Structure prediction request, 926 residues.
Amino acid sequence: MSKTITLTFTLNGRQVRLETRPGTRVLDLLRGEMGLTAAKEGCGSGECGACAILVDGTAKLSCLMLAAQLEGREIVTAEGLGTVEHPHPIQASLAENGAVQCGYCTPGMTIAAAELLAHTPCPDRGEVREAISGNLCRCTGYVKIVDAVMAVSRTTGEKNS
Amino acid sequence: MSAFSSNSSGQRFHHRDTLSKAVGAERYSTDFTPPGCLWAGVKRAGVPHARIIAVHSEEARAVQGVTSVLTRADVPGTNRQGIVHKDQPVLAGSVVRHAGDPVALVVAESREALAEALACIRLECEPLPGIFDPELALKPDAPLVHPDWETGNLLARGLVDKGDAQQAMQACEVVVEGEFETPMQEHVSLEPPNGAARMTAKGVLEMIVSTQAPFRDRFEIAHALGLNPMSIRIRAPYLGGAFGGKDGATVQCLLALAALKSGGRWVRMDWGREETFLAGYKRHAARMRIRLGATRDGVLQALESTMYFDSGPYAHLGVEIMALGLEHSGGAYRIPHTRMEGFCVYTNNPVGGAFRGFGVVQAIFAIERIMDVLAARLHMDPGELRLKNALRPGEQNCAGVAMQSPSGACECLETVMAHPAWADRMAWKAKAPPFKRRGVGIAASCNAMGYGRGLPDAAAAKLELTREGNFKIFNSVADMGQGNAPAFVQLAATALKQEASRFELVQPDTRLCLPAGSSSASRTTYTFGNALLRACEAMREKLIARAALFLLVDEPNRLCLKPGEVADEATGRSVPLSMLGAMLQRDDRICVDQFVMPVVENPPDTGKEFKLGFPHVFFSHGACLCAVEVDELTGQVELKECVTAVECGRVLNPRGVEQQVQGAAAQGAGLALMEKFSTQGGRILSGDLSTYLIPTALDLPDLECATVDGDEPSGPLGLKGMGEVGIHGPAPAVAQALGDAVGLTVRSVPVEPEDVLRALRGEKS
Prediction:
């Protein structure tokens, strides 16, 4: 129980070095010791997606990852995507398009959407639905979430064209 | 009637809370973990019915880091919780009545120690025979859930009637009947129940909880634990969803007990998802027998219905939910003679409770299904049959209450019937791809708003002009995601003619905010909104009166509010709000007012058993169409279109209405096709999100929403509540659509592929 390891990884653009127990869940490490509460616990068993983070650019469920798996990786949480003052386009779009109700699933949703848009800048609605299908939302019926991601993709698409 | 775009006079409006939520900066109660806090958790019985012989906790006490292990003997006060009927123990001491009953509470320095200790607690008990069906529970020889309850397992019986249904039924040219069931449903708010608590040095029990009823919680905790309610302070930050699942004590009493025994340290309690399935409240499963009589040309004459609600082992809000079930048994229709009888019954199943639609979901499913049977018998179009009988303003609903205007049942039906998915359905069905069949269904609904007669549906609002000349709204009703918080800002900004950015919203805090009822019953925006508008009017009068002093104007009424100032248009002079804020004493910067929702003035002489919550005076209305495509090979049902029209008074913020309607329709679609809450002998078989499936983004089409403009004169700026009305449509509309597609007779939901395959093979369901 008391054995600890030293980890080095990048968290939201900053190099982090810390000691922790190797079996600590990444979700607990983030929310507890790191004080980053954007990733939420909705189920603790990989079903809901509320705890999603980007690990080397891929959306992962932090409730299913152990601290030791962070070594050398690049981690981005919803806080790392953007802030109230400087939101990521997907965060701004979700907020502006009525896609946020209780908001508990939203940080995880931003991670899934950000991963999608990084690989597929102009997805169709079906691709958006597939990309966020691992993220449960009980409030919105998903329509406005899909709308919001599509709105970003249009903006990005226009910029690219 | 309106088109399907954003069609209202209202403006789209978004509040900055959406951005703080999106970037992960908003702090929910689950994000409040004070340094050095303790962790509390509960050992649950795991057996549905048993006599407790002992709770062995010695090993748990010995686990390093455990600070206390509490059992029934450690609970001060009555140990009884419950909103209306107090029959639920905080910790079970003598009898276990359902598998989720808590038998020991552990507090520890870390979550690891907590988990280890909980695993060591052993319940020694003698199993008792259980009862798991509400009708069987009423048999004379059924095992008793509460042996000392004088009516056996019958928690309550209710009767609501009007005219003479029996005689009218006999005179009917056509009578149809059926038996229908709706299952337990799990809320699955993404944030599970949780909170933090501590005793302060001054003896105040301070709590931060994910709750729908911070003001009421104080009394529930105080009663259960023998405390002074006014020594309890509750704060309710934004909730990560609730839908009724946090209406009533979840963690509250347990957490308060843990804090009482923790020497002033903060204690956190987080229910896991599986614990929430096990111990949280469920939508009541219901069985309904219904007879409907009509003339040969389809004019409804008589209704008889009997509803059995499975309350589980505790009353919680079961009686009140049954009252709404009976009150909505006739749906959105004009039926002269009615007799609705209900039985709310104790069993050893999970605890029934509030869930969006509060008894109405069950009732609407039954009446809409029997309307389909009638339409088929009469060879009538199901839409036309509904339209012919839909309640119009001034007409009496099934409980004998006249619909006050507006009553948009007809307009909602006309709206969805004009939608291409209904109007052109024959052509769409004919174009089904190979091995697919298509069907379209329609349903009407209504949902009462507010608590109803017998319980004051009241709210008091406080509004402060800050020293800087901005405004602080002290919100008294929790925002569980339905968006009442931004709605309040919009109402106040409109009333005071200020930019929304000038408003700060203080979330419910029983020390800072004024009392209001729960965040439930589609009441928050109406009730608190009205109180807030009154406070705004008081603020307007105050501001112009004080500004008049500055401007030496002897007719304050000629002054008007403008963004950031009070202006005198006659002279072109003005006083900035910042100057007023700096000048006035705090007492003078605050305005408070209150509102109590009206009740039915001359209630019908029926439903006397229901002291609380019957009848209602205001209703929102809705209609829904669902188009489905069935795979002949697999039986899979795909919801292709779901269109909901609602009449909820005046629409101030079309996006807010769409959000609620889409979310409600998604939950209704889940109920229709996916959400199978399975139990066997009181044990939950679908106890997590891998076995209890709710819709994902791939399971739903782009849910459409249309609004029918109304104007409720008593509502804040004309609006009514609409959080619930959107949930009713999908289950009956999908059921009808499956009848249309494959001839399936749906008597219960969710419909599963096996049911569809049986229908395709021509087997009776």
